[in-house]
Amino acid sequence: QVQLVESGGGLVQAGGSLRLSCAASGRTSSDAMGWFRQAPGKEREFVAVISWGGGITYYEDSVKGRFTISRDNAKNTVYLQMNSLKPEDTAVYYCATARRWGTLGELTRATFFEFWGQGTQVTVSS
Fold first, then answer.
1. Which end of the chain is more exposed for a tag (fewer CB within 10 A), N or C?
2. What pLDDT score was predicted for residue 28?
3. Angle CA(38)–CA(40)–CA(42) in degrees, nearest 5?
4. Phi and psi at residue 38, in whole multiples of 5°?
């Protein structure tokens, strides 16, 4: 079993930055670690994913060039640096882990990930 705890969310003005963290504990051997988000009335959507060594990353198109995912395996922590935030980035952000790497199609689906955090709210004001 893996426990994930997100932190770093908050209220920020458009154009600002936030850094989310996700600390993992328990059986933390995981290959893929990802971030998803869910806005009110919308489905949970893929944001970014990173491989075990950090050498492979994928991003949702609307966040490319603005968000950066990284991980520190010594600390069992994954990060999401979010710059140039927009009001449409407002959502609850969740981190998730999967015990294996997958195809791009698999990695962008929430159902591929086995363990989830409780989420952290990000609100971007215009």
1. N
2. 64
3. 60
4. -140, 120
The two tokens of residue 51 are: 């491989």
Q: Do the strands 91-98 and 120-125 form a parallel or antiparallel pair, or are they unpaired?
A: antiparallel
* The residue to which tokens 């698999």 are assigned: 106
Half-sphere exposure for 34 (CA within 13 Å, toward CB): 31
CB 126 within 8 A of CB 15: no
DSSP designation for 40: T
CA distances from 123 to 38, 79, 85, 89 (A): 12, 18, 9, 7
Question: Rounded to an integer, what distance in angstroms lies between the CA atom of residue 82 and that of residue 75?
Answer: 20
Q: Does residue 76 come out as left (phi exceeding 0), alpha (psi in the -120 to 50 range) or beta?
A: left
Pairing type for strands 10-13 and 120-125 reads: parallel
Token pair, residue 20, equals: 């989310």
Per the structure block, which two tokens stand in for 16? 């600002």
Tell me what pLDDT residue 65 has. 97
